[in-house]
Design the sequence.
């Protein structure tokens, strides 16, 4: 860490400690133990997917090489970090990062029994909560008590300066990848080669990625989480959608761009118009707005596009009333972003708990909270031609209301999504993604 990061990290830990102290007191605990977790092997296998630490552990310890580590925290005391360093020649065991020493009492263990003894002693005489998958045997601790976990989840919506700096770094990497991916697409690359170009430019390994890259050409752009990477490129490709992120110290960005060739015809204008509407919507963001209202405002904008591009035969207002935009944008407008791509607490109404689920018919909306300064979330409208949903709409509405011949002509273009990550400020919003694109490539 450089000097600025060290300062930000120290402030970050101070804020986290103060909040956790409050949360422990309010929920009736004296101390908390947080387990980073361990890789979980596949069924009947001895291999595991890439390790992801418990995000509550990652909040304190921003290094994902922490398999088996455990944090102990009690208000007023120096947090203790138990780092697992097994005698092992199959993997490189985690090491103690240079920056950790200043903030934690460090205890390195190699055998599970050593940790067990230490935790039992730490929990002795204290009302202890355990945050993780499974508390060690004989440990008298409440496993993920809702009264505490709710408070911790709710608070994660607000990002510290350290978290924002990490997200900023992640965004720089992601944007470098996106520009390389765009160039690879226009250079004639396949999905697989575009993915390779992305990873190289973003300097990400698969394990670094906050989520698997979505690299879809043409109809694949209509598969919301398209998961394959075709080795060959279709002739006369029209559209390329890439939803890809990058991470820094556990914080990940989540960015989508859609690009078109001249073969896309009117669809290229539709992408441009969607981009304009996405920016227009972001301009309206300020503290106090409900994210649900913002989601509906985007649906109204999508309906205006459907009407303007003559994809519907009715007015934008009539399309909205009939819910037609839900066929074309069947996902939520956005979600909280941070240590998790879909950060926790998106429906939570208060630190104590309580949920505001999304309105009926909009179940995929992951964020229903009132917007407040310091929150980071995505704004990711899309407009897709998804055959399965179009069939349902046609069965429902018959030949009316929708211009089916135009829909059929545009279906081979798949779809478009534009996704930026925004930070709410005291009186508005910063678009972290576009700021980074402007720095990297003034032309975006
Ligand atoms: N990349 C997943 C999402 O946009 O939510
Ligand atoms: Mn995304
Ligand atoms: Mn997203």
Sequence:
């Amino acid at each position: 860490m450089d000097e600025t990061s060290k300062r930000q990290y120290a402030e970050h830990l101070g804020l986290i400690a103060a909040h956790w102290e409050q949360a422990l007191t309010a929920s009736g605990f004296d101390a908390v133990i947080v387990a980073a977790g361990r890789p979980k092997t596949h069924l009947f296998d001895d291999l595991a997917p890439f390790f992801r630490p418990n995000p509550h552990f990652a909040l304190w310890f921003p290094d994902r090489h922490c398999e088996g580590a455990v944090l102990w925290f009690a208000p007023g005391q120096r947090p203790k970090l138990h780092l697992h360093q097994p005698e092992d020649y199959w993997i490189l065991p985690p090491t103690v990062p240079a920056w950790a020493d200043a903030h934690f009492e460090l205890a390195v263990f190699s055998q599970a029994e050593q940790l067990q003894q230490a935790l039992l002693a730490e929990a002795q005489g204290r009302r202890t909560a355990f945050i993780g998958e499974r508390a060690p045997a004989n440990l008298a601790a409440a496993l993920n008590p809702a009264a505490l976990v709710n408070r911790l989840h709710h608070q994660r919506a607000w990002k510290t300066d350290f978290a924002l700096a990490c997200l900023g770094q992640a965004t720089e990497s992601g944007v470098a990848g996106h520009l390389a991916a765009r160039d690879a697409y226009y250079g004639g690359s396949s999905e697989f080669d575009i993915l390779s170009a992305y990873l190289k430019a973003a300097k990400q390994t698969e394990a670094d990625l906050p989520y698997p890259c979505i690299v879809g050409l043409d109809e694949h752009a209509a598969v919301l989480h398209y998961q394959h990477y075709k080795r060959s490129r279709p002739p006369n490709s029209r559209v390329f959608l890439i939803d890809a992120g990058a991470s820094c110290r556990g914080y990940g960005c989540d960015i989508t761009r859609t690009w078109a060739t001249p073969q896309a015809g009117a669809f290229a204008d539709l992408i441009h118009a969607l981009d304009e509407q996405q920016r227009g919507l972001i301009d309206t963001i300020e503290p106090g707005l409900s994210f649900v209202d913002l989601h509906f405002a985007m649906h109204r904008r999508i309906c205006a596009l459907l009407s303007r591009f003559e994809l519907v035969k009715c007015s934008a207002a009539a399309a909205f009333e009939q819910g037609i935009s839900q066929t074309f944008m069947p996902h939520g407008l956005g979600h909280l972003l941070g240590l998790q791509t879909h950060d926790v607490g998106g429906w939570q109404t208060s630190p104590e708990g309580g949920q505001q689920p999304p309105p009926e018919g909009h179940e995929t909306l992951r964020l229903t909270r009132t917007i407040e300064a310091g929150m980071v979330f995505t704004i990711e409208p899309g407009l897709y031609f998804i055959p399965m949903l179009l069939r349902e709409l046609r069965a429902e509405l018959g030949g009316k209301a929708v211009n089916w011949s135009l829909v059929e002509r545009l279906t081979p273009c798949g779809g478009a999504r534009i996704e930026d990550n925004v930070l709410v400020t005291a009186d508005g919003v910063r678009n972290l993604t576009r700021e980074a694109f402007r720095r990297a490539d003034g032309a975006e």
User: Anything to note?
Assistant: Residues 120 and 138 are 8 Å apart (CA to CA). The longest helix spans residues 161-186. The mean pLDDT is 96.
